[in-house]
Amino acid sequence: MEVGIQGVLGSFHDQAASKYFNGHDLDLKPFSSFRSLAKAIQAKELDYGVMAIENTIAGSILPNYALISEFDLEVTGEVYIRIEMNLIAHAGVKLEDINQVFSHPMALLQCSDFLTQYPNMKLTEYEDTADSVRLIKESNMTNAAAIASKKAAQLFDMPILEENIETNKQNYTRFLIIKSRMNGQTKVPEKASLRVMTKHDPGRLSDVLVAFKEHNINLTKIQSMPVLGQPYRYAFNIDVTWEDYDEYQQSLKEIAKSSELIEIHGEYEKGLMPDYDKGSR
């Protein structure tokens, strides 16, 4: 099974793919950007793609919502990954030896409490967490460290100097499993990702929300996005779950009365959400 990920092997996208497709024989295909990944999925060069869509700290990744619409991709699943950061360096290197730390800018930000304890460390932004490990290894940078996942440390055979240095221990990223619409449905749907543009009249969004309520549809997310080419017009990316698929279908008929456009990005099986009271799963 060929699965595309954004970033290199050892990245959090790699972890998400391995978790969701656990037990399958995977051939992971790294892509340098989400756009190139989306193009490959649309062209059916891949069976599936894995795309981060929101983080509990950073919020929604709005450009990825736009890519799903632009390339008419279908959401077929989801998976949640706890983001654990680790300081990785060459064997024998100590904290006092390090004067430079490489990682993705978001990873550096998410480890700010730890890093402020070491003001002598210069923080250097890099395009990918796992690739920063490759950089310090191949460059033999014994005065530098990288911040990345445990999987990246294992992949590049680099020791972890400090584990779990992230500031927030309840930091999760939600990843969507994407495919071309030409492939068939493989799971019993329990959840849907929608894009809705309501009519430009007062109360139309309220009508949509009431229709969901009356049909016992639970909204797990609603996110507004500007409509390109129509200044000050907005569409809403909405995630919903249900107990009765027929009720969900009826709700779509109801919200159509108040909407100019309804796009179903995908109907899929719910992913296991993190239990924040118990920590990571």
UniProtKB/TrEMBL annotation:
Pathway: Amino-acid biosynthesis; L-phenylalanine biosynthesis; phenylpyruvate from prephenate: step 1/1. This is prephenate dehydratase. CDD domains: ACT_CM-PDT, PBP2_Ct-PDT_like. Keywords: Amino-acid biosynthesis, Aromatic amino acid biosynthesis, Lyase, Phenylalanine biosynthesis. Its EC number is 4.2.1.51. It catalyses: prephenate + H(+) = 3-phenylpyruvate + CO2 + H2O. Residues 193-269 form the ACT domain. It comes from Reichenbachiella agarivorans. PANTHER family: PREPHENATE DEHYDRATASE P PROTEIN, PREPHENATE DEHYDRATASE-RELATED. SUPFAM superfamilies: ACT-like, Periplasmic binding protein-like II. InterPro entries: ACT-like_dom_sf, ACT_dom, Chor_mutase/pphenate_deHydtase, Preph_deHydtase. Residues 2-180 form the Prephenate dehydratase domain. Gene3D superfamilies: 3.30.70.260, Periplasmic binding protein-like II.
